[in-house]
User: What shape does this take?
Amino acid sequence: MRVPLIAGNWKMHKTEAEAIALVRVLLQRVRFYSGVEVLICPPFTSLSQLHKLLVSSPILLGAQNISDLPSGAFTGEISGRMAAEFCSHVILGHSERRAYYGEDDALINRKVKAAREWGLLPILCVGESLSERDAGQASAVISRQLRGALEGVWISDPAEMVIAYEPVWAIGTDRSASPEDISEMIASVIRPGLAGQWGVEFAGGIRVLYGGSVNPGNAAGYFNQPEIDGALVGGASLSAEKFLAIIERTQ
Ligand code: PGA
Assistant: This one.
């Protein structure tokens, strides 16, 4: 039984004061929903304060990135150990990290291992670009990203790993992918890829989210698909009303 997960990726938005204000609104309402996990991933600068606010609440806290390295002279980096002081989850392999910061599958693999070492639950993002999709390479790209990021990664429970399928052309563009297409890609490429790594039974227990322009209007269409176990929400997670409405669509 895979519990749906709704994760908010705030990206480079919200000061600490803005983050606290948004979380206070979420806290008033989130306890009315059941059978769903709710996670927010704010910028690093708000993690310490939000951790204090959320520590005995149903809202989970995640980081948007970590270094692959444990410590040292790496200006601007945050280690898995530091993130694990405040967070239970970490987003890794996001297409923006791949495209703007040159993260390749080998680096993402080291980051996944670093996350596991510190007990952080990785939300591993995979997804093809528009040109890759148009060239008929979507399945091959996703399989390669999964294999590369998960090579040598060991988990003892399927709940310790989450995959987010985010077609790059659907992120922040208002051009969401159809629920049927997403479901098909999960069933025919992502779950078989996970099964190759950990076996069919384990793969069946790993949650696979959809991400890319999810909003209150289209969320139910995704959540009605048995293969889709929730969403990684960018833009719409910056508004308490929209994010709560998306969570509500799982009920
Ligand atoms: P979006 O972002 O919902 O704004 O498309 C999703 C993501 O990048 O995780």
Remarks:
- The pocket of 2-phosphoglycolic acid is lined by residues 9, 166, 171-172, 211-214, 232-236 (CB under 6 Å).
- The radius of gyration is 17 Å.
